[in-house]
Structure formats: C-alpha cells, structure tokens
Amino acid sequence: MSLESYMNQIGQQARAASRLLAKASTKQKNMALFAMADALESARPRLISENAKDMDNGRAKGLDSALLDRLLLDNKRIDSMIEGLKQVAALPDPIGEISDMVYLPSGIQRGQMRVPLGVIGIIYESRPNVTIDAASLCLKSGNATILRGGSEAFYSNQAIAEAVTSGVVAAGLPEHAVQVLNTTDRDAVGMLISMPEFVDVIVPRGGKSLIERISKDARVPVIKHLDGNCHVYVDDEADLEKAFAIAMNAKTRRYGVCNAMESLLVHSAVADKFLPKLIGALQEKGVSLVGCEQTRAIDSSVELATEEDWYTEYLAPKLSIKVLANMDKAISHINQYGSHHTDAIVSQNYSKTRAFLTEVDSSSVMVNASTSFADGFEYGFGAEIGISTDKIHARGPVGLLGLTSQKYIVLGDGHTRDN
Amino acid sequence: MSLESYMNQIGQQARAASRLLAKASTKQKNMALFAMADALESARPRLISENAKDMDNGRAKGLDSALLDRLLLDNKRIDSMIEGLKQVAALPDPIGEISDMVYLPSGIQRGQMRVPLGVIGIIYESRPNVTIDAASLCLKSGNATILRGGSEAFYSNQAIAEAVTSGVVAAGLPEHAVQVLNTTDRDAVGMLISMPEFVDVIVPRGGKSLIERISKDARVPVIKHLDGNCHVYVDDEADLEKAFAIAMNAKTRRYGVCNAMESLLVHSAVADKFLPKLIGALQEKGVSLVGCEQTRAIDSSVELATEEDWYTEYLAPKLSIKVLANMDKAISHINQYGSHHTDAIVSQNYSKTRAFLTEVDSSSVMVNASTSFADGFEYGFGAEIGISTDKIHARGPVGLLGLTSQKYIVLGDGHTRDN
Regarding the domain with residue range B230-373, which homologous superfamily does it belong to in the CATH classification? Predict the structure, then answer.
C-alpha cells in the first residue's frame, strides 16, 4: 500500500471511530481507560523488550544521554503510565455538558453543548509515555486520535499501541479510536497535517523548531506551544521578602521548564536594596547572570546583556536582569520581548496589580505568585496536554476542555421565525 | 512606498493601537461608537458622492444589478449604519470579565479574564456597510482592525474610513484602531493573511471561493463560514403540523441565506402522509424539488436527485428530499452530506430528540424549531460578525465573544511552588 493510501485509510478509520466515540458514555470511556491500564500491566515484559530494541538502536545511532533517558521505558515509568490512566478516568467528563440555556424573545431556548473536536493528530518526540498521556486525554474527551511519535521510539510505541487498542476494544469502543502510525516515513507527518477532511486539530509536542515547522505547513488548526520567555517584575511597592521567594522559586525550581523565569525586571527605586541579595543567592545556585548597565552598576560580576538576551528563553541556569523606571515600562518590555506565556508582578499596590493583570498580554498573568504555577495540574485541571501560546481556541495550560468544542442547541415546540 | 512596506506599516500601527485598545474603558469605546455615528451623519453628502463614483465605475465595468445593489449607499443605508453603531454601543462589554476564580490546594486563586484577540483582519466583498459592522464589533471588543473591502467599493470605503477615524480620535482612542487599506492591489490580501506578527485572526466574509482561497493560503488563524447545507429531519413520531410549519419556514423564509433548509429528510412511516401536502405547498411557492426514488413514488413531479444534490447548498428556491427508514440513517446522512452548519429534528419522542442533539455534529442542532433561528440576533448576541463552521475557537453564530480570548490570571500573596 502506498503511504498516501495508508494515511487515507488511517484518516477514514479515525473519522468513523470519532462518530462512535462522540456518543460513548462516560462509563464506557472510563472502562476503556481501566482496560488500557490492565493491558499495560500484562504487557510489561513485552513493553520492556520492545523498548530495549529502541534503546539499542538509539545507542547505535549515538543519541545523547538526555535523549536516551527520555526514550527509556522501565517498570517505574510503566507504573506512572498506569497511574496516569487511572487519574484521567477519575476526571469529570466534560462531554455533553449543557450551559447558558436561556429562553429568547422568539420563544426558543438556546444553549451550548460541549462536544469533542473529532479527530486529533498528535506529533511528538521520542518519549513513549506521551503516547499514553495523549491517548488517554483524547479518549476521555471523546476524540479519536492519530499518534505519530518520534522514530527512535518506534518499537516502544507499537507495543504501547497494541495495549491501548486491546483496552479500547475490551470496553466495546471502536478499534480505531487510538491509532499509532506504523511508519517512520517523514512524509507521513506532512500528510497528517494536511488532511482537514479527516483531522480536526493537530497538537505538536516537542521543541520549538518542530512546532514552528508544523505550524507553517499545517492545513489543519494547530494548538501549539512555542517558547516560554517568562518575566517577574518587582515593583517599588513590592514586599521584598515575597519578591525574593518568588524570584528564586520561578528561576531555580527547575531550569528546563517553560514556566521558569527567564528575565527579571526590577523597579529602579528598589534595585539597590533588592538585587545584591538575590544576585548572591542565584550565583550560589550556579545561575549565570546578564543584565542592563544599571544592574551592572549594582554588581559588576553580572555580564552585560545583549538585545538578543531579552528575547531569549534560556531553559538553563541563566537569567537576564533589567532595571526600569516604572511599571509601565515593565509592561511594555514584557509585551515586546516576552513570548506571551506567563508573567508576574510582585507589588502590594492595588491599582498597579489591577493594571498589570489587564495590560500584560500573556496566557497567564500573575500577582504575587511564582510563574511556576502555570501548569494544568496546579490550575486544577487534573492533567494537561500542553500549554498553548495561541490566542485562538485554548490559551494557557490545555486540559480536557481544550480538546472540546461547543455547539449551539436550540429547543422549540414548532417554532418558526417571523422575519 | 512599496506595497510590502505599506502593509508592514499598517501592521505595526495596528499592533500598537491594539495595546491601547485593550485597556480602553467601556465608556471610551462607547464614546467612540457614538462619535463614529455623528461623523457618518455629518459626512452624508460626501459618502453619497464618493459612492456615486463607485457606482459609475461599477456600471462601466458591467457589474450585474445584484452587485450594484449591494454596492449602493443611500440615505436609508447610512441610517442603518448609524443605527448599527448605536446598537453595538448598547451591547455589554465582554472585556475584562473574570470567571471561574477559585482557590486551589496550593493557596493561589486561579481564574480567567476575557481579553481582546488583538488585531483582526477582515476581508470582504463590495458591501460598504460591512465596513461599519466589522469596525464597530471589533472596536467594542477592544481589537484593532485592518479592513480590506472589495475594490469596487474603494471610494465608499475610504470615505467611511475617514468618518470612522475621526470618531475614534474624538474619543481619545488611537488613530489606527480601525484602518481601511487604501490600495486595491490584490497582493495586499496575500500579505495581510501572512503577517502573524501583526494580525491575530482573519475573518473573511463573502462567497465560498473567496473563503476557501483565504483559508488555504493563510498563515494566521481564520474564523470562517463555508456553506450551510442545512437539514430538517421529520421523524415518524413528529407532530406533522409542526413539521409542516418548520419545513416551510426553513425553506421559504428566505432562499439566499446560509440557515435555509436545503435538504428534507422524512421517516418512511410518515412520508405518504406528510409529503403530498408539503410538496404541493412548496411547488406553489415556486420551489423546485428533487428527491430519492421513494419520494418520486409519492409524487412523480419531483425530479430524481443525483448524489451531488445531497451535498449541495442551493441558496435558491430548490430542495432535495429523501425518505429514510429511521433516525439513525438521518443522522448518518446529515453527518456525511451536510456542512455541519445547522440541522433540526421534528419529533415528539424524548429519547430520539436527546440522541439527535448529541449525535449530530453541527454548529447548531435544533429540536422542533426552524433552522432559520441560527443567527446571532436570534441567539441574543445583539450582533454577529458571521457564522463559523469551524470547530476550533468560535463555532456557530459569532458575536462579540467570538472576537475575544481568555487569559488565565493567578492571585497569590507570595506563593511559591513546592515541587
């Protein structure tokens, strides 16, 4: 079969499965999630032996240790995949929820019903656990899924796919509810993102270059996460103890995450008082610092930042620091150089916090809290498929709701429209 | 200035204006709408004389009478543009609304704030009144707008643009809040839809071919309306009087609208009883009919429908009729041949109406009501910028809310994340 026929078949099967999933009951979907967990449990030896093939191939290809670590499937990771399935089963089912049902002057009642998006394509790198994460969230939200993982995880993903499908079928749901592509041909990705007749939305998960390439070529809507160049602004009316705790947490909790602070903005009236202690504490943690001239006047061990630094998401123990004359300049800086991901103000001033919340154009805007909280679990969604830096559809951490849409429903009793 | 520099300048100005509009107060935005109305009132002679140039050019180019009618600006149409501005001013302002603010286990409060999308590009055909419709809805929702109207309405749109800008400036809002392109170069459209750095969303208004072309080429999200191949399904448990009224209203209220019924589906158990009277009434109104073999067995004056007919939005006094064995077949037919716009069931059976609402995959699904109700005004939105047949972001009639997004806001008091 040609690749094109294969992708066409996958698409048609997904579309047909999506019709059945859209009307599946919560009970059936949860049964499928538990059956998937059981199937993973039974498949442990096979999962580990298939993963060993990927690991061997990866080592032979010379993958670095970070990539090999992401690729690894051991018993602990299988445990957490199984646990994840149970957690998703425990989440409330958003599908079918009816809201805003009101009587209108014509006599009809109009409201909205939450429905699945239909078919979701997920493109991700060589992390086998994403296969289960993505499949479980899409299934719970009543969507059919087409998964395309990184080629380095090919054998692992095929083994996971078998377990997933056996669980889905055991619960009486359609066999093609979750399909993992069984080709490593790169052209398959290009086809997957240009089948609007079969695929309703693409969620790419991975590095910025992968996501940019997919967004550029896609003929289907993309829910995407680009970079997280997050800021904390410390106001002249900040409680400096809170500011210290928040800045340290936002920068040093974890370095490689998208909600880490990458740039610190400090009001000039408190820079002398605030920065020396913070700079010392950050340097003690091994964070390398670049800053504006005013920052360097306070501590000359800070390197001079370039224009490029203000745009940069380091994803590393590195921070840029800028001293500014007032909050308006901080807001302008964030809206210009930031990535509209997550930005925070530390201030005790009521009017300023109110203005900051309104004027900063980011998917999460925070007052007196660490940017680290920008996360589906911390926001109470129970799980997340990613964080969207788009403004259309889902913005910010995307949980089950981001994988749904709302249609209008109208109830009448023989009503017709007059004019 | 080259076209590219010009479009770049327009984009930068729009982005800068959008920052100011995002924080404009409701009072200021309403003042601007009233000032725009005053400016249109004062500009009446100029609007009419500039429109006369377009009308002369249109006649010389041989535009047909329907196009010339759409192009015409007379005092009555100016009245209704002015009235439209006042209606938009009277709508509640969605911007800044905070919802779902909850305390989470970590101690932070998390909610969502409604915000403008940013910059909206509107591409439309030669109907000058759309300039005011679109500009007013975008302004009220805090967005900057770039408008590109049909070239036949060039002089009319420029004159309207002057009035709009004078109103905007009189209210202290940014001069570039609403920009009407002053070029008829077709390449400007291509540039407008590929500037994601300056334009957040494109709303094309016009025929299907325009919209398909724009969707295909856009590098920016598109809120689009394709066709409205709407169905009414008359169940064997329908109240046939209600079914008759609904079918007549859905088909004959207006023929050229997207929410008109284009295909009637009838349960075989009531076809003999229901169809003869309906066919007679429709033919009396001049509606030409095509149908399946079973329909033709009931009335041989109905022409045989082709496979193509079931896919077709006639936008004309024409209807396709199909007799089916049960509701499930009707739902499958609608989901396969329909355009996911608006579909209705007529039935007194509780379980069937409940299943129809859930299983039909359309932007509006109705029970015992005419498809004609699928409309922003009828749904109580006060105005609509169009009807979306997409599933992502806005689906169905798009009012002010469809021109907004929601960002997360987090309030803490020095909160940091533990793990």
Answer: Aldehyde Dehydrogenase; Chain A, domain 2 (3.40.309.10)
Where along chain A do its domains lie? Answer: 3-224+398-410, 230-373
Q: Which of A327, A340, A335, A228 is nearest to B16 (CA)?
A: A335
Residues of B whose CB is below 8 A from A364: 407-410
Beta bridge partners of A121: A146, A202
| B364 vs A125, residue with greater confidence | B364
Give CATH for domain B3-224+398-410: 3.40.605.10
CB B174 within 8 Å of CB B168: yes
ipTM reported for the complex, 2 dp: 0.92
Is residue B194 less than 8 Å (CB to CB) from chain A? no
Band of the pLDDT at A59, cuts 50, 70, 90? very high
| Interchain CB contact of A367 with B (< 8 Å) | yes
Chain B residues 248-287 within an 8 A CB cutoff of chain A: 248-250, 253
Helix (H, G, I), strand (E, B) or coil at B206: coil
In the prediction, which pLDDT does A215 show? Answer: 87
Q: Which residues of A touch B115 (CB under 8 A)?
A: 361
Q: How far apart are CA B209 and CA B203, in angstroms?
A: 14
> Is there a contact between A366 and B408 (Cβ–Cβ < 8 Å)?
no
Q: Lowest-pLDDT range, A61-70, A111-120, B236-245, B349-358?
A: A61-70
Task: Show which of residues 293-312 on chain B sit within 8 Å of chain A, judged by CB atoms.
Answer: none
Cα separation, A259 vs A238, whole angstroms: 21
Q: Does A315 touch chain B (CB under 8 A)?
A: no
B12 contacts in chain A (CB < 8 Å)? none
Low-confidence ranges of chain B (pLDDT < 70): none
The reported pLDDT for the residue numbered A372 is 97
Chain A residue with minimum CA distance to B390 = A200
- Please give the residue of chain A at the shortest CA–CA distance from B110: A379
Question: Which of chain B's residues have a Cβ under 8 Å away from the Cβ of A373?
Answer: 106, 108, 110, 410, 412, 415, 417
